[in-house]
Design goal:
The chain is α/β, with parallel strands linked by helices. It contains ten helices and ten strands.
């Protein structure tokens, strides 16, 4: 924050990293579905990239994809990044496979529904019971091994599951989870009757929020409520984040992974901090009109704009 306020050039604190483009599901809403392929990051490249990210000042790495649990070296890679460089690690997974939660600061399971039929319709495969069992195993591992890993589940609300918000929350409130996140779909708009039904359930869910671990990610819903408009221009928080593809390409954020205009460079060809020399130029030329509501930068941007507005910073 000091770097940001003083010269506008903070180190990227946290990056999303694509271990693999393979996936064992086919979610109909997936922003990444057109890019699913057999490509993976090699263990050697991962180690090199981790070193570069460390030199750039990165402190945390979130594994995503594709489905990161499909990489057969995931555990070795996580241990390497955590123990060699002290990175805090996060994992976003569909939970069909379970490789343990050791060395992760947080793990989020993308579950979406607790109904078998809805699961198969949205996610393309009948394996909900396997996923629910894996969430329970993760909770049990956390208890048994006294881990401090934050474990959450997520529902992306679509036309197919929008009537199930409350039953989803009720089901998971019985478990010893840290949070249960309900978020809007990024790349589609709801029908009027659907959004009205969602608002009614979210109102009940907000009342549950105080008494359970529910997180509604309100800023994402308020952008939907604001007719899909953001309350800020550009992306002031872009310098705090980044996304690394399976081939080492470094992009502004995960939304624009593989988009040529959002690429700073390649972490295998260009040594770490060198890549940031391009950053100002890429960010200046970038067209932010395609940024979806509720993206990774939304909350960061609102926070940063608020901070910049503080006139007398020695008063709270
Ligand atoms: C692309 S997935 C990759 C990780 C993993 N395969 C999974 O599903 O958790 C990362 C996250 O993006 C979410 N996601 C994908 N498409 C989305 C969309 N259109 N709107 C909101 N979230 C989306 C998924 O639910 C998941 O939580
Ligand atoms: S499991 Fe994840 S990567 Fe795979 S299709 Fe679903 S959202 Fe996309
Ligand atoms: S999608 Fe979000 S995080 Fe990415 S550049 Fe746009 S505002 Fe920033």
């Amino acid at each position: 924050m000091r770097q940001y306020l003083e010269d506008g050039n903070p180190d990227p604190i946290s990056v999303k990293l694509y271990l693999t483009e393979k996936c064992n599901l086919a979610c109909d809403y997936c922003v990444y579905k057109d890019r699913i392929s057999a490509r993976e990051m090699t263990q050697e490249d991962f180690q090199y990239i981790a070193g570069s990210l460390f030199q750039m000042g990165v402190r945390s790495i979130v594994l995503t994809g594709g489905e990161p649990s499909m990489h057969d070296k995931i555990q070795d890679m996580v241990s390497y990044a955590h123990f060699k460089y002290g990175f805090d690690m996060g994992l976003i997974t569909n939970g069909v496979l379970y490789n343990g939660i050791w060395n992760f600061k947080w793990v989020r399971f993308s579950v979406d529904t607790i109904r078998d039929a809805t699961y198969e319709k949205i996610k393309g495969k009948a394996c909900l019971q396997k996923v629910l069992a894996n969430v329970e195993i993760a909770i049990e591992d956390k208890r048994r091994y006294h881990l401090d890993t934050t474990i959450g589940v997520q529902m992306v609300v679509t036309e197919d599951n929008h009537r199930e918000i409350l039953e989803f929350l009720e089901y998971f409130s019985e478990m010893d989870l840290d949070y249960c996140q309900i978020r809007p779909v990024e790349n589609a708009r709801y029908k009027t009757e659907t959004i009205n039904f969602i608002w009614d359930q979210l109102e009940v869910a907000r009342q549950m929020e105080g008494s359970s671990q529910t997180v509604l990610t309100d800023y994402k819903w308020s952008e939907v409520d604001n007719n899909y408009k953001k309350s800020y221009e550009g992306c002031p928080g872009a310098k705090f984040i980044g996304a690394v593809g399976v081939n080492g390409d470094f992009h502004i954020c995960c939304t624009f992974m593989n988009h040529p205009d959002s690429k700073y460079g390649n972490l295998i060809k260009d040594r770490g901090p060198e890549i940031l020399k391009n950053r100002d130029q890429v960010l200046k030329k970038f067209d932010y009109s395609k940024c979806p509501v509720g993206c990774q930068g939304s909350l960061i941007n609102k926070y940063l704009i608020g901070i910049k507005k503080i006139k007398h910073r020695n008063f709270i």
